[in-house]
Amino acid sequence: MFKRIIYQCAGVACLSLTLSACKTPSVVERTVNTPVPASYNSSQDTTNTAQLQWKEYFTDPYLSALIDTALQHNQELNITLQEIEIAKNEVRDKKGEYLPSVGVRGAAGVDKVARYTNIGAMEATTDIKPEKEMPEPLPDFLVGLYANWEVDIWHKLHNAKKAAVARYLSSVEGRNFMVTNLISEIANSYYELLALDNQLAIVKQNIEIQSNALETVKLQKQAAMVTELAVRKFEAELLSTQSLQYEIEQRIIETENEINFLVGRYPQPVQRSAESFVDLPVEKIQAGVPSQLLQNRPDIKQAELDLAAAKLDVKVARARFYPSVGITAGIGFQAFNPSYLIKSPESLLYSLAGDLTAPLINRNAIKATYYSANAKQLQAVFNYERTVLNAYVEVANQLSKMDKLEKSYDLKSRQVEALTQSISISNDLFRSARADYMEVLLTQRDALESKFELIETKMQQMGAKVNIYRALGGGWQ
């Protein structure tokens, strides 16, 4: 009767413990809202340039060689690869947590009990035959196996492992996104280098033209056709252009070293195409449909996996409010003499125990973890929505930019052609005294600026070609 009462009280206590532990705060729910437009324009063509591998998209052999080298030696990319390994080991760690833990144990020791203690007094008063009496001090030898296992009834450990897997896959997508950005950075710097080469060539041509003009003005001064002021003006203009040459040469060195840094090597000359920069083709881009961004863009897939991991973290944090069940077991042999260790069942020992624990009072730490997991889940939702929106905006901007730059380049080409012709015209008029020297100087300056602007526009065109490929999610395949 007394035992029954004890069992009933224990059952009520366990039930109340379980019920109190199961009271968890509510989850903050928010649905992911990422509707994307059906198309970028009226076209519904699903052909997508992002499906091309980067070697098919960037056909310049020198640029391809630079990208190949960077994918092997870029330090930041190699750091990311090690982060992937760390994430992979996190998966192994979480997987091991919900599997039983089994170990082996061996021990040896000696124990001398004081006579005037309860144990010592009992041993002194116990009538033991001389051949059976325990040695003093008492040796102790133990060998055995032990096991621990937390029964994952609420899937806390299983969900933690799934969250680790999601973060591992997220780190892989992060690496893919870094590859895409690395390729675009190298391509943009390479085209900038070609543009600087062309600007340097234009400056050198202009220096030659201005030097010839300066000699002409000096001859005209000797013939009293112009004053010293005209000579000084032409000379100042020539010096300004010569100074510009060194500025461009310095920018070339800096751009080369930027490329060298990206490919993971020390400063050295960068081999590049000798083809005329202004003649580089800008192929028509097939953007496909916006929904393809969800599959092509590594940053979107990374944000999606981070969101999945954050949701699992909420489940893990919620499970901490529930009771946890653990099982411990052990089996082995123990004796005060090594020769007795193999005797069974006298030296055999074993244990099996289960325990049920649940938080009851002062659960602030668990609540704080749970609320933080909810907040991080909402952050992941907003980050995913922002990433999708940003991807669409990037593509829309680059498509518009390519269209506008094409029209601008056509107009600037005509402007350069007109101003180039005006240089010869102004020089002829100046020689025949039908134009003053200021008109010649302004014409030369305008022609130089227009050629620079044409090169800048071409560089922007090539940059848009690179950036639209990156925006569409190309480069990492």
Automatic annotation (TrEMBL):
Gene3D superfamilies membership: Outer membrane efflux proteins (OEP) (2.20.200.10)
Annotated GO MF terms: efflux transmembrane transporter activity
InterPro entries, per database record: MdtP/NodT-like, OMP_efflux
GO cellular component terms, A-Z: plasma membrane
Source superkingdom: Bacteria
Lipid bilayer topology: Lipid-anchor
Main location: membrane
Signal peptide annotation: 1-21
Coiled-coil stretches: 70-97
Localisation per UniProt entry: Cell membrane
Family statement drawn from the similarity comment of this UniProt entry: Belongs to the outer membrane factor (OMF) (TC 1.B.17) family.
Record's protein name: Efflux transporter outer membrane subunit
